[in-house]
Write a structure and sequence with these properties.
The complex is a heterodimer of chains A (about 110) and B (about 110). Chain A has strands at about 5, 10-15, 20-25, 30-35, 45-50, 55, 65, 75-80, 85-95, 105, 110-114. Chain A is mainly β. In chain A, strands 2, 4, 5, 6, 9, 10 and 11 form a 7-stranded mixed sheet that branches. A 4-stranded antiparallel sheet of chain A has the order 1-3-8-7, with no helix packed on it. Chain B has about 110 residues and is mainly beta. In chain B, the strands form 2 sheets. In chain B, strands 2, 4, 5, 9, 10 and 11 form a 6-stranded mixed sheet that branches. Chain B has a 5-stranded antiparallel sheet with strand order 1-3-8-7-6, with no helix packed on it. The radius of gyration of chain B is 14 Å and the shape is globular. Chain B starts with a strand and ends with a strand. The chains are: A mainly beta (about 110), B mainly beta (about 110). The interface of A and B includes residues 33 and 108 of A.
Chain lengths: ~110, ~110
């Protein structure tokens, strides 16, 4: 079955530590996105990528970094510069430009600072 | 900052009633509009998309779009307890070749048996 796989499902980070969240898709989608969700805040865009080797900052990119070396993969690194990283992180990808622009979401990674 | 606003909740309706969820957006260039349903602790799932003014029906769900008023709504007929979830309005905008979704904060719907 095609879909988006996020791992791990739960992640615990110590203060001052960088962590990387994995996002892999086998849908042959060009565009991929990272969102952060806090209680009562909806989803906020961190970074997105329309094609391989290219990505853009979203609304809350500070303290995060990404790479897009392969079409299937869009990992997100939460750096020590992100002061409040505890949140639910969602990766999404988009159908090609023609027709439906719907996004497909992965199952999410819940990150907690300990 | 392009914004998407949803009326504050939570919203509670009895089983069998019509639930009405509303959303406004600030960017007049927006072209595509979506409603996602999110159960607690889960990721959002797409339930409706709409691109043209008017109504679009899919089973018990009807999406309504009015671009002049920058307003999109979702009606859920014959509400069921299984419809209890948070509903997120999302608006897609293009800037050149780039596309992204902006989400509202969501509204929590509770359907009382």
């Amino acid at each position: 079955d095609g879909g988006i796989t996020q791992s791990p499902k739960y992640l615990f980070r110590k203060e001052g530590q960088n962590v990387t969240l994995s996002c892999e898709q086998n849908l042959n989608h060009d565009a991929m996105y990272w969102y952060r969700q806090d209680p009562g805040q909806g989803l906020r865009l961190i970074y997105y990528s329309q094609i391989v080797n290219d990505f853009q900052k979203g609304d809350i990119a500070e303290g995060y970094s990404v790479s897009r070396e392969k079409k299937e993969s869009f990992p997100l690194t939460v750096t020590s510069a992100q002061k409040n990283p505890t949140a639910f992180y969602l990766c999404a990808s988009r159908t090609p430009r023609t027709g439906n622009y719907g996004y497909t979401f992965g199952s999410g990674t819940r990150l907690t600072v300990v | 900052q392009k914004e998407v606003e949803q009326n504050s909740g939570p919203l509670s309706v009895p089983e069998g009633a019509i639930a009405s969820l509303n959303c406004t957006y600030s960017d007049r260039g927006s072209q595509s509009f979506f409603w996602y349903r999110q159960y607690s602790g889960k990721s959002p799932e797409l339930i409706m998309s709409i691109y043209s003014n008017g109504d679009k029906e899919d089973g018990r769900f009807t999406a309504q779009l009015n671009k002049a008023s920058q307003y999109v709504s979702l009606l859920i007929r014959d509400s069921q307890p299984s419809d209890s979830a948070t509903y997120l309005c999302a608006v897609n905008t293009w800037a050149g070749a780039n596309s992204k979704l902006t989400f509202g904060k969501g509204i929590t719907l509770s359907v009382r048996p």
